[in-house]
Amino acid sequence: MVTHLSPNSPAGGPPAAQVRAAGRPPGPKGLPFLGSLPAFGRDVLDFFTECARQYGDIASFQLAAWPAVLLSHPDLVEVVLIENHQNFIKHRFFWRHVQAIFGQGLLTSEGEFWRHQRRLAAPAFAGSRLNRYGDTMVQSTDWMVRRWQPGQVLDAHREAMALTLQIAAKALFNAETDQDVAEIGQALDEVMEEIAARLRRPFWIPDALPLPGHIRYRRGVQRMDQLVARIIAERCDTREDCGDLLSLLMLARDEAGQPMSERQIRDEVITMLLAGHETTALALSWTWYLLGLHPAVDAQLAEEVHTVLGERPPTVDDLPRLRFTGQVVSEAMRLYPPAYAIGREARADCEIGGYAVPAGTIVYVSPWVMHRDPRWFDEPQAFRPDRWAGNLAKELPRFAYMPFGGGPRICIGNRFAMMEATLILATVAQRFRLEGQTDRPVQPMPSITLRPKGGVWVEPVPRSARRLA
Ligand code: HEM
């Protein structure tokens, strides 16, 4: 449990941002040469939690050659993500691992180029365009649950991954066939597996070395490239404006009237698929896991869905009345934020919370730590979706709850993701209760995102059968 009773903590005095101190923030010493890298690699959630507990709102440590700090107070997070955001870029320690797949997409690009691309992509995630994706979300979920059989035990995480990939591919790029989606899924699996392995490694191995993981990674990247090139070529042939993200990217022209290069379109397409599908799948997987542990919450969810929808499928217009359903998703992301850590690198020397932070320092913010802080959340370890029923979201400090990050680089797909998770949850809850399998306990596994180790095994129990029982 995070208690934050260290000297630079507000629990013992004024808010950390007002405390003025000199030199390096306190923190673990670590080992010679490696610093805290082994502890960080062993269990990063535990490492961050302990850093915040022992050293307070700003803790410093060394990751081999890289100096790093962890910020655990909303005011300090605001300094990095908003007030002085120009001084912080996505950090190289992480991004060098994924450059080949993301390229110069929205997640990894910087400066004026990023701003231009963000402006271009934004309309795909706003207003009426966003609402149009609702039907795809519900239809794809309906297709998934129709395959489920009573008595079958299935991995809800795997189901969620396949579903959100299908939705992202269809909604954003109008991917035509299930075959396309399946191929994208396989290629992404190969790539993500190697990225996760690289993040666990305490040292850097150049891409050019022909290790089995590197070969699989290159193969996955190549397959993605070929698939995306085909989707782009097909769209070029038809020159159709499908109203999706791909059309926006392809029809965009710069000041000189030039279209975006094919390479750039490829980078944006792959970025959206990677950034969008696993995170949303995880929000759902953890939600189903928690619902399995809390039958009373599950019953309340089923009641709302039944009252609002009866037997008909949900639509985007139902979302304002599916309030509790949305709260369940928000609460699951509080306890298990898919993006459990957000990292930046300081470009120039600066000051955070009264401490000197030299250029090159990696700055971490951990939603995992922030979301479990008793200063902001009563009973922080408890799954209580009704905590969101009142004004909590408005009353919280700005960065106490931040599953989608914040500031100019806030997740561009946040509304898409909330809409998707709520519609999927409602569609499934209408038909099935997902009974957790107690013989297969779930452990959080922090990889690039916060995955459930070994999956979330459940038995879908039809709601009608339950009511009759
Ligand atoms: C529950 C689901 C999701 C979660 C928890 C999530 C979380 C995040 C977070 C924390 C960031 C900020 C990273 C940082 O500041 O370094 C981010 C950025 C981003 N997300 Fe999401 N995301 C989700 C869904 C989506 C979806 C559905 C899409 C697209 C279809 C998407 C696309 C992106 C992109 C492109 C960025 C980079 C934005 C930029 O830098 O301008 N995400 N996401």
From TrEMBL:
Annotated region Disordered: the residues are 1-24
> Which Pfam families does the annotation name?
p450
Under the heading PROSITE patterns, the entry gives:
CYTOCHROME_P450
Q: Which residues bind heme?
A: 411
- Which cofactors, by name? heme
GO molecular function ontology, one term from the record: monooxygenase activity
InterPro entries (UniProt xref): Cyt_P450 (IPR001128), Cyt_P450_CS (IPR017972), Cyt_P450_E_grp-IV (IPR002403), Cyt_P450_sf (IPR036396), Cytochrome_P450_Monoox (IPR050196)
The alphabetical list of record keywords is: Heme, Iron, Metal-binding, Monooxygenase, Oxidoreductase
Taxonomically, which superkingdom? Bacteria
Q: Does the keyword Iron apply?
A: yes
UniProt keyword annotation of Chloroplast present? no
- Quote the PANTHER family the UniProt record gives: BIFUNCTIONAL ALBAFLAVENONE MONOOXYGENASE_TERPENE SYNTHASE, CYTOCHROME P450 FAMILY 4
Membership in a protein family: Belongs to the cytochrome P450 family.
Kindly provide the name given to this protein in its UniProt entry: Cytochrome P450
**To which species is this protein native?**
Microvirga makkahensis
Q: What is the lineage of its organism?
A: Bacteria, Pseudomonadati, Pseudomonadota, Alphaproteobacteria, Hyphomicrobiales
